[in-house]
Amino acid sequence: MHSIDYQESLREVATPAGVLRYHEAGDGPPLLLLHGSGPGVTGWRNYRGNLAVFAQHFRCLVLEFPGFGVSDDFGGHPMMDAQSSVVAFADALGLDRVDIIGNSMGGGVGINFAVNHSHRVGKLVTIGGIGVNIFSPGPSEGIRLLQEFTEDPTRQRLVDWLNSMVYDPALVTEQLIEERWELATDPETLAAARRMYGKAAFAAMMEMMRDADFPLPWATMHKVKAPTLLTWGRDDRVSPLDMALVPMRTIPNAEFHVFPNCGHWVMIEAKAAFERTVLSFLTESSAAAR
């Protein structure tokens, strides 16, 4: 199994809102991989360890969302821009139907796409990050640490947040810290993060959700028609496990897999088990699903 090279796999496509960059590897049915949020995140960093495995079965497309330092910044709220960018990206590449893996925020974006463009989604895999707190307090430890870094970015605050993402602190290496720090403190990337996780912006979003006269995202998950695999780290301190209860119960055709001794980054911390589980789900009866 050969590794996937960053530069060789990097592509870009123009959309009316700006240039979207992505990584492409493998042949076969299209598999769209959507990354999460947080300091220094990119699609490549979320999925680089999994690409070689999935590329043996699929045409893997790792989209870099606007506002995270790789694609152009569309200038709006990063979550809203991420949602619109998936539609623009699929249209630009002529993707009539895709399977989707979405990590954390990317899972929420995938759910949104599956609800509003159901005919374009074959199967959907989410990694934490969706649903709503039932028993645990919110915001969670990981989200609070993310807010603190966004407000006042220091190296120690970045380390504290990274440690909240994993079960095994040995995964937070100096290399990881340095690559995350460089992108997270880029002025444009940090400005985009503050539109989402700055304390004032986050408080305004919470108030808007409390006063909303429309269904919140977790209340629309019953509209997902795609077969869905919910994956979760048992020890997730960003999206506590009880958040999975609503999507598990309301998504009509949902399966739920919990990985022990694992935090928020299931695809990294439980890499081999995650890949086996997801490949089994995506490839089983795939012809019927399409």
Structure description:
The protein is α/β, with parallel strands linked by helices and 290 residues long. It has a single domain (6-136, 218-289), classed as Alpha/Beta hydrolase fold, catalytic domain (Rossmann fold, 3-Layer(aba) Sandwich), CATH 3.40.50. Helix content is 42%, strand content 17%. It has 14 helices and 8 strands. It has helices spanning 6-9, 43-47, 51-54, 78-92, 105-116, 141-151, 155-164, 174-184, 187-197, 199-211, 245-250, 266-269, 271-283, 286-289; strands at 10-15, 18-25, 30-34, 59-63, 98-103, 121-127, 228-233, 254-259. It has an 8-stranded mixed beta sheet, with helices on both faces. β7, α11 and β8 (254-259) form a beta-alpha-beta unit. α9 packs parallel to α10 (199-211). It is globular, with a radius of gyration of 18 Å. Mean pLDDT is 95; it is low at 286-290.
Key features of this structure:
single chain; alpha/beta; Rossmann fold; 8-stranded mixed β-sheet; disordered C terminus
